[in-house]
Amino acid sequence: MDLQFSSDDLAFQDEVRSFLKENLPASVLDRSDRGLHPLKDDIVAWQKTLHKKGWIAPNWPVKHGGTGWSLTQKYIYNREYFLTGAPQTIAFGLNMVGPVIYTFGTQKQKDKYLTDILQSNVWWCQGYSEPGAGSDLASLRTRAVRDGDDYVVNGQKIWTSWAQYADMMFCLVRTDPDVKQQEGISFLLIDMTSPGIEVRPIIGLDGEHSLNEVFFDDVRVPAENLIGEENKGWTYAKFLLGNERNTIARVSRSQYQLKRLKEVARAERRGAGHLIEDTDFRRRIARIETDLMALEAMELRYLSQDIAGKKLMAEPSVLKIRGAEIAQAIKTLTVEALGPYGMVYESEDQLTMRNDGPLGPEYAHGAMADHLYQRAATIYGGTNEIQRNIIAKLILR
Ligand SMILES: Cc1cc2nc3c(=O)[nH]c(=O)nc-3n(C[C@H](O)[C@H](O)[C@H](O)COP(=O)(O)OP(=O)(O)OC[C@H]3O[C@@H](n4cnc5c(N)ncnc54)[C@H](O)[C@@H]3O)c2cc1C
């Protein structure tokens, strides 16, 4: 594989670095650095800055507002972005439903939704999972029945991230219960202000409200909000899930977090010295760092194959499993490095009730919340067990 960047690539890398250094707001970086969820207004403002620069949607085709970057440039951009500590942009509009709309939507849908997604004017949420339909998504039961120019939707979604902020949901619904499961599903765009929708919070392990249940009680959705053909929703749903390849391994995010872990270990006192001098602790950091280097080499190998036009099959699953496990290991070790203050867990709500700031050293705040939220990394986007099933089917047969 060719690991050399051209002089143009290196110039591009410098441009990305300088832009991020000059434009990423300190408050946005601070929350991202601690692993805390971004505040809605902050992330929207940051995404608008990226849009103004023309960099909000690297993966979109140029004619719909993409950058036209090569695979190498996209790799460099993502790498620099996360090495700076910048937060992941909200994926639901930009990486998920946007590509579905420009690939399968009508001209009217493209005109109505794409610009607002690029400009972060509309917040989208993902209505896939239901109680009893997560890994086995095709067994979903939320029903949509055609009635004149509308569909009438009844049922329930669960684990809907950020539904409390959402203006729109892209939703999988069952339109034909009498055929093979995958063949009776449709993909609807639902206005979250429609009468009959109720959003109920689920408070996560991290004490924060990012998850929700969403209930539909005779919700009328205009039939023009159907994507593509009725009962072909499974095709669009799978297309959407296959779009996250670029950042799936989280290598640069983990490199940033590993660098922060070493800083904590340098600052934390143990006995007469510092934690970073402890042989056992150094060995544990080295083990994670070695795993991360191996993951990076694997990611580059796949990138090189992608550039050469080889169709990637099970590779994204391999990257997702290792990437999530390594990210979790870094956070677990960070919490350990912080000693007693690593165990302190204060939610945002608890903090707003006090006026003396978080307990412990300034850099400890957020570590436990992030450690707990990281448990989800091996669940969302397809659990590690499901990824292993995919690998078994595609590679080990
Ligand atoms: C933080 C977070 C955010 C999320 N955000 C969203 C969102 O915005 N929108 C949305 O639609 N969903 C969202 N999800 C839901 C997520 O997609 C599901 O949790 C995931 O698909 C797993 O489904 P489940 O929770 O029903 O678990 P289940 O599918 O019930 O799995 C339970 C356990 O059984 C294992 N298992 C299941 N089937 C198999 C099998 N065939 N072989 C081996 N093991 C198996 C699983 O690996 C898991 O360990 C989110 C989840 C989390 C944790």
Descriptive account of the structure:
This protein is of the alpha+beta class and 397 residues long. It has 3 domains: 7-89, no CATH class; 123-231, Butyryl-CoA Dehydrogenase, subunit A, domain 2 (Beta Barrel), CATH 2.40.110; 248-394, Butyryl-CoA Dehydrogenase, subunit A, domain 3, CATH 1.20.140.10. 46% of the residues lie in helices and 14% in strands. The protein contains 14 helices and 9 strands. The strands form 3 sheets. A 4-stranded antiparallel β-sheet has the order 2-3-7-6, with no helix packed on it. Helix 1 packs parallel to helix 4, helix 4 (71-83) packs parallel to helix 8 (251-267) and helix 10 packs antiparallel against helix 14 (384-394). It is globular, with a radius of gyration of 22 Å. Flavin-adenine dinucleotide binds next to strand 1 and helix 14.
CATH architecture of the largest domain: Up-down Bundle
Q: Tell me the CATH superfamily of the largest domain.
A: Butyryl-CoA Dehydrogenase, subunit A, domain 3
End-to-end C-alpha gap: 26 Å
Report low-confidence residues grouped into runs of 5 or more. none
Beta content comes to 5-15%
- Rounded radius of gyration (Å): 22 Å
Heteromolecules bound: flavin-adenine dinucleotide
| Net shape | globular
Helix content: 40-55%
- Spell out the helices and strands N to C: HHHHHHEEEEEEEHHEEHHHHHH
